Amino acid sequence: MISSNDFRPGVSIEWNGGVWKVVEFLHVKPGKGSAFVRTKLKNVQTGNVVEQTFRAGETVPQANLEKSTMQHTYKDGDDYVFMDMETYEESRLSANQIGDRVKYLKDGMEVNVIRWNGQVIDVELPNTVVLEVIQTDPGVKGDTATGGSKPAIVETGAQVMVPLFISIGERIKINTSEDKYIGRE
């Protein structure tokens, strides 16, 4: 159990039948009445964000999450096969379990697989990945005065907006949480 007074960003709790991560919190002590904690919670499984108020000192169960480092080895049909880096056991995850982050998943990439009560609830990719551009329109010199962007498709099939000077075959660094181009590698 964890007290609402101990809430910090990143703390995981069990609430309303699911696992929620504290995104923001504010301890409020009004002049009249009792203190309370105003929080913004994100559901780890669905990604929904809600605002919730807890009484100061109210206790809620803390989520017992297991995090393991796994390496994506290959894709078998609709399943993605991962190898645990400590025990060398293989696990199969579906695209639904991985979510939209599957578009950046590359063979040999290490990810953190988070389990709650034995079931996979989240797959964390590295913050940045380096991928090769396989398709993009050529940039025309003098096309824009301030710099523009164009869509590019990378080796995993994801589409990212890149500057006009990027061409096919270049390796680019992408922020996986914001789906943004960071720079060339």
From TrEMBL:
State what protein this is by name: Elongation factor P
Q: Which NCBIfam families match?
A: efp, PRK00529.1
* Gene Ontology terms: biological process: peptide biosynthetic process
> What HAMAP family does the entry give?
EF_P
User: What is the primary gene name for this protein?
Assistant: efp
Subcellular location per the Swiss-Prot or TrEMBL entry: Cytoplasm
Give a yes or no for keyword Cytoplasm in this entry: yes
What the entry lists under InterPro entries is as follows: Elong-fact-P_C (IPR015365), NA-bd_OB-fold (IPR012340), Rib_uL2_dom2 (IPR014722), Transl_elong_fac_P/YeiP (IPR020599), Transl_elong_KOW-like (IPR013185), Transl_elong_P/YeiP_cen (IPR001059), Transl_elong_P/YeiP_CS (IPR013852), Transl_elongation_fac_P (IPR011768)
Q: Which family does it belong to?
A: Belongs to the elongation factor P family.
Instruction: Tell whether Cytoplasm is among the UniProt keywords.
Output: yes
Q: What does this protein do?
A: Involved in peptide bond synthesis. Stimulates efficient translation and peptide-bond synthesis on native or reconstituted 70S ribosomes in vitro. Probably functions indirectly by altering the affinity of the ribosome for aminoacyl-tRNA, thus increasing their reactivity as acceptors for peptidyl transferase.
Q: Which GO terms describe its cellular component?
A: cytosol
Q: Which CDD domains match?
A: S1_EF-P_repeat_1, S1_EF-P_repeat_2
Major subcellular location class: cytoplasm
Q: Which residues form the Elongation factor P C-terminal domain?
A: 129-184
All copies of domain Translation elongation factor P/YeiP central, residue ranges: 67-121
| Top-rank lineage group of the source organism | Bacteria
- Gene Ontology terms for molecular function: translation elongation factor activity
Biological or metabolic pathway of the protein: Protein biosynthesis; polypeptide chain elongation
- Which UniProt keyword terms apply here? Cytoplasm, Elongation factor, Protein biosynthesis
